Amino acid sequence: MSAQLPDPRNADIWVHVGGRLVPRAEAKVSVFDSSVQGGDACWEGLRVYSGKVFKLEAHLDRLMRSAKALDFERVPSRDEIRSAIFATLQRNGMCDGAHIRLTLTRGEKVTSGMSPKFNRSGPCLIVLAEWKAPVYDARGIRLVTSSWRRNPPMCVDSKIHHNNLINNILAKIEANHAGVDDALMLDIEGYVSETNATNVFLVRDGALFTPFADHCLPGVTRATVLELARKHGIDAQERRLSLVEFYGADEVFTTGTMGELSPVLEIDRRAIGSGVGPLTRRLQELYRTLTESEGTSLPF
Q1: Max Cα separation, the chain?
Q2: Model pLDDT for residues 183-238, shown as the tens digit of each residue
Q3: What is the spatial distance between Cα 76 and Cα 79, in angstroms, rounded to a whole number?
Q4: Distance in angstroms (rounded) separating the CA atoms of residues 100 and 46
Q5: Neighbours of 153 (CB within 10 A)
Q6: Distance CA 33, CA 39 (A)
Q7: 8 A C-beta contact, residue 107 and residue 33
Q8: Nearest to 17 by CA among 26, 6, 8
Q9: Could you tell me if 163 and 39 are in contact, meaning their C-beta atoms sit under 8 angstroms apart?
Q10: How many angstroms separate the CA atoms of 177 and 190, rounded?
């Protein structure tokens, strides 16, 4: 391949597209596919640890809810999706250290246009598994507040894990131009929502806080961290949080399947606390232990 890949092993991966496993170079959808025509698709990100897919059923739950909200017809069954995931991982020899981008598009249209009435062949399932370590620097990341506001439910509800990500991409462009890792996004009332790619938490006086999942995706990793905190006696609350509260936090970290738990060192050039804090480190360790012990075992 002409472009240098972050992990050269991904040059020869096989991808599941529309019922077939094909080499990377042949992994394509039609120009009439709804994902191309209008970002009309939903997706999930999953990780593989030590021969197990972590939180597979929770991700399938959300994928099915998203597909129902988008009014998809002839959605593949959970068994069919599981089989496609397992077959893809087996073909690539992936049992650990892999990330899966699972996408379900509305499928191919008979002519270009917005209406789902033009979709007559059913959804297209894509399983893209890559060798991919957590994407953020383990030492911590820096954020800048975006001028783009997170969509409210009255516009595009973030509880639909949809592929129309231009809102997030515009914020990410601002982060790139600012020379930082990601952008912190506010809701339309000025409260912190999430970053362009992850949920966000703050720590103050030993307690854990995260924004309500009203203008942000209720992430699977977010839910796992809240569950771990409550299980281990850590005060964890969901409530509205202002940007000023994040500036003055003892610790801040982000959560997501792609990056796991990532400490935030700086927001808008303001240092957060005194570096990676003790509660962040404790939750990272609890999360790491969970990924090593739980998950759906691979059948090969």
Answers
A1: 58
A2: 999 999 999 999 999 999 999 999 999 999 999 999 999 999 999 999 999 999 99
A3: 8
A4: 5
A5: 11
A6: 9
A7: yes
A8: 26
A9: yes
A10: 22
